[in-house]
Amino acid sequence: MIHGFYFLICLVFVIIRTTILPLSLLKGFDILLPVVIFLGFFRPVKEGIPVILIFGLVMDGISGPAFGFYLSAYGWLYVILQGTKQFLQVKNVLMLSLMTVAGVLLENFILNLMIVENLFHPELSVLTGVLKIGVSQAAVGMILGPVLILSMQKLHGAWHSRIFRIFAGRNEEYPV
């Protein structure tokens, strides 16, 4: 049932990412990064990996970069978060901001590594491409990332308690 929650959240974010954000000032920010950060920090692996795989493939299928970009970016970010969450204070809002910025920079780094033009122009550094595009996205991510992550945490709690009450109510009405 919890995968239904992730499906709804990610479906709404994919629709927002592909229809509304390109027309706004937030055009480059990947709104699914906070979902990956939420899954990496606050949810177990058995919940995170299927969501990362499915929505990485969905974003690869409907967006412009090379196929496998979102899957690899989300996958690497998830692995990094799973490995570092035992050393970090994940409930700290500043840490959530920093991880969102790190996710934006990682995504831009992977994108710049995939661009074929960098192979033909070795004088262009991958780092300059990351910094050029990533600074504005990182600023948006610093503000919007923690808000989305904390909102997902509240929604997850409400969803879980609601589903639990529904199923617990059934079990009380119809004892086995």
Task: Give keywords.
176 residues, mainly alpha
Can you characterise this structure?
With 176 residues, the chain is mostly helical. The chain has one domain. It contains 7 helices and no strands. It starts with a helix and ends with a helix. The C terminus is likely disordered.
| Topology, number of strands | 0
Order of helices and strands: HHHHHHH
Mean pLDDT: 79
Largest sheet: none
Tally of helical runs: 7
Tertiary shape: globular
Radius of gyration from the CA trace? 18 Å
Straight-line distance between termini = 21 Å
Structural class determined from secondary elements: mainly alpha
**Fraction of residues in β-strands:** under 5%
Helicity, in percent?
over 70%
Spans of at least 5 consecutive residues with low confidence? 172-176
Number of domains: 1
SSE blueprint and pairings:
Elements: H1 2-20, H2 33-42, H3 45-62, H4 69-84, H5 93-114, H6 117-120, H7 126-173
Helix pairs in contact: 1-3, 2-4, 2-7, 3-4, 4-5, 5-7
Short synopsis of the structure:
The protein has 176 residues and is an all-alpha fold. The protein has seven helices and no strands.
